[in-house]
Amino acid sequence: MAAARPVVSVYSRDGKPVSEFVNLPAVFKAPIRTDVVKFVHTNISKNARQPYSVSRVAGKQTSAESWGTGRAVARIPRVRGGGTSRSGAAAFGNMCRGGRMFNPNKTWRNWHRRVNITQRRFATVSAIAATGIPALAMAKGHFISNVPEFPLVLENSVESLKKTKEAVKTLKSVGALEDVKSFLPGDNPRTWCASCSPPQKTPVCKKSGPVAVVDRKRSTLVYNKNVKAVS
Description:
Family: Belongs to the universal ribosomal protein uL4 family.
Pfam family, one: Ribosomal_L4
Mean pLDDT: 83
Strand content: 5-15%
GO cellular component, one term: ribonucleoprotein complex
Oligomer: single chain
Keywords: Ribonucleoprotein, Ribosomal protein
Protein name: 60S ribosomal protein L4 C-terminal domain-containing protein
């Protein structure tokens, strides 16, 4: 499944097509391999993990000692003393209540994963190709029904925009403002992160809106933080 259109139309800031066509980049014609993207993302995301481990003395802070043989009980170490239910209870073993775990986590384990650069490039190309298919974009939750063409190509004058109101007007003209508003925090239900509780600073999952691909040297719109949800 991939985009098969050879050319795409160029639109002005007013949302009207101009008498110009550009060839669709070959990256949008690449095969979409969800298995490769998932494999690469899973392995690369492991490189940001913080090492953790179990205490060296966890489950071993007891005076337990084995009773030896001849008592018709297991030779697992048992807590000394009497007068409490803890005395005589097995300890140390991973099968015991309050005992140490088997093969505890260590900080020097292999936390990182190496991924071939060819696989990383393949996953990047496949992910970019998926962004050019309207069905997949709509399935992800984007509102692109009013966008005249997808992916949308605008003329070079858009890169010279400096005012936020001009950027918003352009987004409205091409039908992309609805998608921008759908990802604003005040217009959609709050989605709590699985790893964050409400009292913390960033409890709301921030979703990604439209992506503008521009010339970094000439464009100032992409750095305008007032246009929310546009990256």
